[in-house]
Amino acid sequence: MEAIIQDIQGIPLNHYILLSSIIFTIGVIGVLIRRNVIIIMMSIELMLNAVNLLLAAFSAYHGDASGQVFVFFIMALAAAEVAVGLAIIVMVYRNTKSIDINLLNKLKW
């Protein structure tokens, strides 16, 4: 049964799942705990990379390239998220002279 679970490189699929779960958990904790916008965006990128790793691992395991196509689209989405997020951070910094999200209470009614 172990020979079936091994991919081309000889690393079991369970190791990819465990590593992706750890990376995703670190990203979720970073989003929930930190209040710095840059660190929150980095945590979101970490979560997207964990999903990319898992999609690529399952794609190699099943011998299907559709997972790798999804990885490409997620990478494009991450690049767009960084561009828009960086523009938002610059505008927030210009208005509040800080990137702490707790200071954004000006947006409340």
From TrEMBL:
The chain crosses the membrane at residues 16-34, 46-63, 69-93. Its EC number is 7.1.1.-. It catalyses: a quinone + NADH + 5 H(+)(in) = a quinol + NAD(+) + 4 H(+)(out). Signal peptide: none annotated. NDH-1 is composed of 14 different subunits. Subunits NuoA, H, J, K, L, M, N constitute the membrane sector of the complex. The keyword Transmembrane helix applies. It comes from Olivibacter domesticus (Pseudosphingobacterium domesticum). Pfam families: Oxidored_q2. NDH-1 shuttles electrons from NADH, via FMN and iron-sulfur (Fe-S) centers, to quinones in the respiratory chain. The immediate electron acceptor for the enzyme in this species is believed to be ubiquinone. Couples the redox reaction to proton translocation (for every two electrons transferred, four hydrogen ions are translocated across the cytoplasmic membrane), and thus conserves the redox energy in a proton gradient. NDH-1 shuttles electrons from NADH, via FMN and iron-sulfur (Fe-S) centers, to quinones in the respiratory chain. The immediate electron acceptor for the enzyme in this species is believed to be a menaquinone. Couples the redox reaction to proton translocation (for every two electrons transferred, four hydrogen ions are translocated across the cytoplasmic membrane), and thus conserves the redox energy in a proton gradient. Belongs to the complex I subunit 4L family. One of its GO terms (cellular component) is NADH dehydrogenase complex. This is NADH-quinone oxidoreductase subunit K. One of its GO terms (biological process) is ATP synthesis coupled electron transport. It is found in: Cell membrane; Membrane. The keyword Transmembrane applies. NCBIfam families: PRK05715.1-2, PRK05715.1-3, PRK05715.1-5.
